[in-house]
Write a structure and sequence with these properties.
Strand content of chain A: 15-25%
CATH superfamily of chain B: Thiamin diphosphate (ThDP)-binding fold, Pyr/PP domains
Largest sheet of chain A: 6 strands, parallel
Distance between the termini of chain A: 47 Å
Radius of gyration of chain A: 15 Å
Helix content of chain A: 40-55%
CATH architecture of chain A: 3-Layer(aba) Sandwich
CATH architecture of chain B: 3-Layer(aba) Sandwich
CATH class of chain A: Alpha Beta
Strand order of the largest sheet of chain B: 2-1-3-4-6-5
Shape of chain A: globular
Strand content of chain B: 15-25%
Order of helices and strands of chain A: HEHEHEHHEEEHEHEH
Oligomer: heterodimer
Order of helices and strands of chain B: HEHEHEHEHEHE
Structural class of chain B: alpha/beta
Shape of chain B: globular
Chain lengths: 193, 165
């Protein structure tokens, strides 16, 4: 049991606070509950809901960011996803896309498969990102801090990484209703131009 | 033997404008040429390259991913649970290590089963030859446009000029 667990907010609460600050930025959301929760909180055409390819959300976001250097691109990622695709922290840190904001909801478990522990309780992912070359890196525990830091990152050149410690609570959210090809087409149209 | 700059120019003429991947010796000449033209974004793993290509595609680019065929193993899940189901095409330029059983031991199994592996997951593929290069690239472009999934072009040793001919 984590000492701060009792005081942490849920991923859905954190996500809702972030989505309130976003308008038409592309957001790539990792597979599992994060995509389902984002879909329930605000289903925007600028959302790309990843349902498979675990570990790949930040790579997809990086591709979007490199191809659209004038658009700020956000990833909603999880600790399990980041650990699986940890090399992408290095690629982002090396390429330094200014328009790249990486949010990690860190609940220290593989929530979608039954809360098996990850290793993010002992491996501080924000420090890995910092060492890899991310420019702005913050770790936050509560809503006020995450709103403050995220607003700040929206104003700054990145790459930026916001790690939010969240509890294991899962919002009652169904599967993403759109078919994958529709998600692709809708997202492409929404970020055109 | 196809010159690397001709290979790259042909891809650019087809409209390919986002190149990423992980190197292989057979692809060394092509990657050097892409780097000369400042067109290449290096990835650290092939599944990452496939993810970057998918993002670039959705942002309006026509992407290609270069890899050794061992990388097909690494990226197989991304290819089938991202590109195929989301209809996100990319051109896979895959070096055929282990072809005909003549290579280092780690390449032999993939070298033997690679075409059947892609058949199994329904990813279309073709092997580039110097004689058929125009038809090969035309087939790649048509399959990309028509099927909207990854399409693989295998590069065997000696077909495209490498770094050390």
């Amino acid at each position: 049991m984590r000492p701060e667990q009792g005081t942490l907010i849920s991923r859905a609460q954190a996500m809702e606070a972030l989505l309130e600050l976003l308008t038409d930025q592309p957001v790539i959301i990792c597979n599992g509950f994060p995509s389902r929760e984002a879909h329930k909180i605000a289903d925007r055409p600028t959302h790309f809901y990843m349902i498979g390819s675990m570990g790949n959300a930040s790579a997809i976001a990086l591709g979007v960011a490199l191809a659209k250097p004038n658009k700020q691109v956000i990833t909603f990622d999880g600790d399990g996803n980041v650990l699986m695709g940890m090399g992408t922290l290095a690629t982002v840190g090396a390429l330094k896309p200014k328009n790249f904001i990486h949010v990690i909801f860190d609940n220290e478990v593989y929530g979608t498969t039954g809360n098996q522990p990850t290793v993010s309780n002992v491996v501080p992912l924000e420090k890995v990102a910092k060492s890899a070359g991310y420019v702005n890196v913050e770790r936050v525990l509560d809503r006020d801090d995450l709103v403050y830091e995220f607003k700040d990152m929206l104003k700054k050149d990145g790459p930026s990484l916001l790690l939010i410690k969240v509890n294991e609570f899962v919002e009652d959210a169904g599967r993403v209703l759109h078919d994958p090809p529709d998600i692709t087409r809708r997202f492409m149209k929404a970020i055109e131009g | 033997m196809i010159e690397s700059d001709v290979f790259v120019q042909t891809m650019q003429d087809m409209g390919v404008n986002f190149f990423t991947g992980v190197p292989d010796s057979i692809l060394g000449g092509i990657i050097a040429e892409l780097m000369n033209r400042r067109l290449y974004t290096p990835a650290v793993r092939e599944d990452e390259a496939v993810g970057m290509a998918a993002g670039a595609y959705m942002a309006g680019k026509t992407p290609a991913v270069l890899m050794q065929n061992s990388g097909l193993g690494t990226s197989l899940n991304a290819l089938i649970s991202l590109n195929v189901i989301y209809q996100q095409p990319c051109i896979l330029i895959v070096s055929w290590r282990g072809q005909g059983g003549k290579d280092a031991p780690e390449h032999l199994v993939m070298g033997e089963v690679m075409p059947q592996l892609l058949d199994t997951v329904k990813i279309p593929h073709r092997t580039l030859t110097e004689k058929t290069v125009i038809e090969d690239f035309r087939w790649v472009a048509e399959t990309f446009m028509k099927q909207r999934i990854p399409v693989a072009l295998f590069i065997t040793k000696g077909v495209v000029k490498g770094l050390h001919p």
